[in-house]
Amino acid sequence: MANSQHTAPLTPIAARVKALEAILTEKRLVDPAALDVLIDTYETKVGPRNGARVVARAWVDPAFKARLMSDGAEAVAEFGYQGRQTEDLVVVENTPKVHNLVVCTLCSCYPWGVLGLPPVWYKSAPYRSRAVMDPRGVLREFGVEVGPEVEVRVWDSTAEVRYLVLPERPAGSEAMSEEELAGLVTRDAMIGVAKVTLPQR
Amino acid sequence: MNGIHDMGGMHGMGPVAAEPNEPVFHAPWEARVLALTLAMGFHGRWNIDRGRYFRENRHPLDYLSSSYYEIWLKGLEALSVDAGFVQADELAAGRSLVPPPNDSPSALGPTESLAIVKEGSTYRRPQTSPPRFKVGDAVRVREMTVIGHTRAPRYCRRRRGVVQEVRGIFVFPDTNAALAGEKPQPLYSVRFEGIELWGAAVGPRDAVYIDLWDDYLEAAT
User: Fold this and answer.
1) % residues pLDDT > 90 (chain A)
2) CATH number, domain containing residue A140
3) Rounded distance between C-alpha atoms, residue A86 and residue B79, angstroms
4) Would the ipTM clear 0.90, i.e. be above it?
5) Number of helical H runs and strand E runs in chain A
6) Which residues 151-180 of B are in CB contact (within 8 Å) with A?
7) Domain of A25?
8) What residues does B165 pair with on adjacent strands?
9) Any chain A CB within 8 A of the CB of B78?
């Protein structure tokens, strides 16, 4: 019995959600089968692998990068990554002189189409309160030290414009294929709290 | 509203705790809340700004002690009651007690739901007149006390910045959240120097870029 999830009592919050779903289903306001496909979409299909492919393409294809920088939403639609919470996408590029960091201080705005749903820390009070005021301190907690010669730009997502960081391509990756490069790009690097590095040899 | 959700620049929240290999959802009910919120939004009885307002308009103790998807659940319950989809006593009873009203919309199926998500819903609107400010203009965020929803964070009010981009014409959240009309207007990307916002506490060259609507801004020198 201890190993059976089906007989375990629901937590109060899970019971409350189940009750709401039952009420809305009984009133024919939601279709549980539609809920299932929506969950599957964001749990298994839309995620940071999307954004990683976009970044890798931008690194190897200057024409694509130009399109991406001028209209992010149009450019990621070439991959089929358009849609909810990516209707307007601005891509900000990290360089040796500028480091970009994305936050939503008011809630949790995040480019779902290219990164999926945001991690808990992105939505948390510590990140939302400090990213705009102490970006270098926050970056240090993620293990990123930004030199004094580098300007840190924090993007507070207050409107329906979503932001994606184009990280710097790591030195030594010149011979790698687009697919290999995509494998290096992490979600955190596309939020701006990490750099892209080569795997340890 | 000057609510607890408006967190930029607060102290005391502690370090950022990232979870290695974090799952998309931490429990099945979180996934159901996300999907229920999306599916109920499809009916068009509220909009994204009203949804945000119903999530943020909570007692600070409740907001801070609720997990993210708990806030979404409480917001969806309140929206559903507000829109007349559900009665408060039905939430208390945990089951449907009355049939839906005759004008009640019908649930969308899986295919239609996915199509809506893929299509997205833009809040961009056509431009009808030239924007008041242009790139390079100095602006100041107005002093404001907004009772309802607003997307002008407290930390930038009365601060001076420079327009970096004109994003286009977008629905105005303050009126949209109140179901008082879209009031479309220019949206600007405004750069604020860190020192203007926080004094010497931040790097001298660091800056914050905030997307701000025309109504939030006045000309500065």
Assistant:
1) 92
2) 3.90.330.10
3) 24
4) yes
5) 11, 4
6) 151-153, 155, 167-168, 170-171, 173
7) 12-44
8) B189
9) no
